[in-house]
Amino acid sequence: MRIGAGIALIAAGAIIAFAVRDTSDTLNLTALGIIIMLGGAAGIWLSYRLANRRHGHDEVVVIDPEVEKQYNTTPPDRVAEHPIDVTPTHLRDDSANHRGTRN
Predict the structure, then answer these.
(1) 9 lies in which domain range?
(2) What's the structural domain count of the chain?
(3) Which residue from 10, 20, 28, 103 has the fewest beta carbons nearer than 10 Å?
(4) Can you give the pTM of this predicted structure?
(5) Is residue 78 part of a domain?
(6) d(Cα 14, Cα 17) in Å, to the nearest integer?
(7) 69 in a domain, yes or no?
């Protein structure tokens, strides 16, 4: 049973349970409609469970360990000995651009 069929059963059961007014001693239409709605809900649940079941419970390796080494983010062993200027070049003053060179 697919989800559409389950929804159709729920709708048909609701119509039978709440919209049809018939008095019969042998058949309770409200109870029948609720049973049909529960069957539709069970069909939707079963359809969802079958569509999303896991095929295997083994651990799946998503990234190859050799590839993962390329993206290692551990900090380096030693830090730079001089400060690193991270100012964008268009915002630096001229004296910072010509360090060590004199005119």
Answers:
(1) 3-51
(2) 1
(3) 103
(4) 0.51
(5) no
(6) 5
(7) no
